[in-house]
């Protein structure tokens, strides 16, 4: 049993929240400033707009008005951090509802990461096309040297699931999408959904060293209307 667990397991009753990770790397990579919602079913972490070696992590919270306690253990050395909590600001609600989803695809993350490396990331926008007909799934960028398109058929090895009801062509600022690539690097699968407002939901499935699974969801709004010639 890790030293960190032995040291504080008898103190758990005094906290209203206790959460532990054997390796905090995955959590630290995707978090900067976060709003945490803890329930008996788990912890939901929301961030709006990171790295350790193998470090054990334990988080405890005694209740309203108390600091958040962080315990980090590496090589038998335990670091204790007390963080004063604040009243959270209202989080922007994208009101993304599964019943309003028009199109949904599930891709292998490794392949999608390779796709992003082939695109012109100096482009201001990334255009995403999802359609029940050809080109099915297309990523496009636009730069001074011209435009580039990468097409993937619905039976591509990259594609694990393809459910498209109608053609949607939308552009999104690359500067807003780039932060989500941190989760993409850690994930094994990614779900891309779009609703009837053309808002995308990128959901990354991350499996840690112990086989446990967590999800990171990323939302943003369309950047601009797509010219008819492109749609």
Number of helices: 5
As for the CATH topology of the largest domain, it is Proliferating Cell Nuclear Antigen
CATH class of the largest domain: Alpha Beta
Strand proportion, as a percent range, falls in 35-45%
Overall pLDDT score: 82
Q: How is the biggest beta sheet arranged?
A: 5 strands, antiparallel
Helix content: 10-25%
Measure the end-to-end span.
58 Å
Question: Which structural class best describes the helix and strand composition?
Answer: mainly beta
Which stretches are low in confidence, meaning pLDDT under 50 for 5 or more residues running?
A: none
Q: What is the strand tally?
A: 15
Keywords: DNA damage, DNA repair, Nucleus
InterPro entries: DNA_clamp_sf (IPR046938), Rad1_Rec1_Rad17 (IPR003021)
Subcellular location: Nucleus
Protein name: Cell cycle checkpoint protein RAD1
